[in-house]
Amino acid sequence: MAEKPVKALTEGEAVAEWAALVQIVLDANVAYHRDDAPTISDADYDRMKRRLSELEAAFPAIERAMTGKSPTELVGAPVADGFGKVAHRVRMLSLENAFEAEDVADFDDRVRKFLGHSGSLSYTAEPKIDGLSLSLRYEAGVLIQAATRGDGEVGENVTDNARTIADIPQRLTGAPEVLEVRGEVYMSHADFAALNVRATAAGEKPFANPRNAAAGSLRQLDANVTASRPLRFFAYAWGDLSAPLAPTQFEAIQRLKSLGFQTNPLTVLCDGPEAMLDQYRLIEAQRATLGYDIDGVVYKVNDLALQARLGFRSATPRWAIAHKFPAELAWTRLLGIDIQVGRTGALSPVARLQPVTVGGVVVSNATLHNEDYIAGRDSRGEPIRGGKDIRVGDWVQVYRAGDVIPKVADVDLSQRPTDAQPFIFPALCPECGSEAHREEGDSVRRCTGGLICPAQAVERLKHFVSRGAFDIEGLGAKQVEMFFNDPTLAVKTPADIFTLAKRDADNPLQKLKNRDGFGETSVTKLFAAIEAKRTIPLDRLIFALGIRHIGETSSSLLARHYGTWEALAQAIDESHNYFGRAWEELTAIDGIGAVSARALVDALHPANAERKEVNRLIGFLTIQQVKAVATESPVAGLTVVFTGTLEKMTRAEAKARAEALGAKVAGSVSAKTDLLVAGPGAGSKAKDAERLGVKVIDEDAWLALIGG
Ligand code: IVH
């Protein structure tokens, strides 16, 4: 969608857009890195991150406010529960992206400028493997630890699992005393297809793509499961080292190869941007026949002494860049436009297409985003696609980036049938007939039917049982739909899931085990899986409720802040007029904006039918409190706010340390704040603290308090 140029935004607009994008990108990070279930396309993700960087660069107010909050400063997502944690001795970083040939030339210019180097430089070029990165630590030639990237600082300990991967040597001869090898775990196309055939036959959910399959397989708590999955590994980098591997990147990779690692055979040396682009085209031409997914080409400065001089920005090295492949495109006929109703009532137009192959995948549906998009406008009413609308019968361009839902990107007016009519977006929900309302400033029209809308109800159930939520084994989207539509099973709301076994036992006829697709064993297993999820951590419960704007990040913030369901519910009940202490406390949670807070309070208003359903659900559950990380420290349980300039560490680091010690870090001072840590230049927050009688200390006193 066309965006207003950054220069045309007022500061207020920029801040609002920035805050909304931060939330989307943070949630997408969690979905992608932690839950292996991407929610947005790579291209959209990259676009949003670029936009964030532009906003941050153009508006000093954002730059000041963002320290530690913006995804542009982060790598990946927090680690999942269940694995031990490993602090990386050398941070595992991400790569800056390039999309166009000019970006590659700019990269070379920047590098040479930074180094004051007028001649040409040599770079390596190699495929960017679409898997997940892994760090392998060898001491005295023995593999002692394997860790995922996690958030770049702390990853998951997956040593037992990594040991089952044939490409990973257990012992090395002739390696430095300490050698941390980094590379990508991936799954080949053939192995992925075979795995999905097995999964489907066993009644399990197939994986969406090889990357998710690789990630899901590596992060199995039972290493025997990993062992049964055909994972592979390419080495392309290193972390902690007791002695250098070689003077250049290229030789270092060759050294890894001679130590017994798989290295990518398409790695070459280039003497400048032109040669880099040649190798890019060569790799792109082979992409479809490689037998594994790649999503671009990585260029790295070859001379390791120069790499060391170039160093790092906050999350990416200055000496490397990932040149991404463009999204894939094709033209086809638009046969019809269907309206799907989602979990939060959003009416989403879906293009029904004459099937067409886009980058090796047959596409017959694509998203059309919303009614403005179809009409040729963005959410602010500005024209997109030169103002061309999209009509049934049109010849349209379909665009597919990575593995996500394809989009209709453009329309060819010269091919428009003479009788094609503008599309009229429905004003009523096609599923339940309720009015579909569009709020001021929202590009989405939403069904106002709430729980009476069967489409919303079923989508909510699907969300409720999904991976990041209750994750009930054997109860996927297909079963949810069947149970919802079956009059005797009548699973209409999440609470009904927990009465299913009893209702089935009480029903002498039409038992579940006698139905198609079920049997004695699968039903016993399903009921046991449901039973097992009666005990659920608070953050998962909140997320499972599927409230608009309350994604996994917000759910976990709320759970950590309130600790118990009762405390959260009380806060909601006392906040329903968006006013008062409880409301202030809710909106003061760092990371919970007014939009999410309002959505939460509205959705669970004590008088709502939905709240009654949630209360019924709660009655069936044992909710586990989400604990702060440490409880022994002097700041455990305190709500702390940082303001002004910190001199000993970054705001991000200060926040991370405080949280690791069990403190809550808030963004603004309220009556609930225990401590304000104020550096030089502290402004309004210090005044707020004074007014509210909140204790104020400086950075040194804070460091003394937490023990340096
Ligand atoms: S180098 C300091 N080389 O891409 C940077 N990364 O978007 C070290 N990746 O986290 C990474 N293929 O998981 C490098 N040939 C390659 C790669 C590669 C895939 C992944 C890696 C990294 C991510 C960055």
Outline the secondary-structure elements.
Layout: H1 11-34, H2 42-58, H3 60-66, E1 85-87, E2 97-98, H4 101-115, E3 123-129, E4 132-139, E5 142-148, E6 154-156, H5 159-162, E7 178-186, H6 189-201, H7 210-218, H8 223-227, E8 232-241, H9 249-258, E9 268-270, H10 273-286, E10 294-301, H11 304-310, E11 320-324, E12 328-341, E13 347-358, E14 361-367, H12 371-375, E15 395-400, E16 407-411, E17 436-438, E18 445-447, H13 454-464, H14 477-485, H15 494-497, H16 500-506, H17 520-532, E19 535-537, H18 538-544, H19 552-562, H20 565-573, H21 581-588, H22 594-603, H23 609-619, E20 622-624, E21 639-643, H24 651-660, E22 664-666, E23 675-678, H25 684-692, E24 695-697, H26 699-705
Parallel strand pairs: 2-11, 19-20, 21-22, 21-23, 23-24
Antiparallel strand pairs: 1-6, 3-9, 3-10, 4-5, 4-7, 7-8, 10-11, 12-13, 12-15, 13-14, 15-16, 17-18
Helix pairs in contact: 1-2, 2-3, 4-10, 18-19
This protein binds 2-(butylsulfanyl)adenosine (IVH).
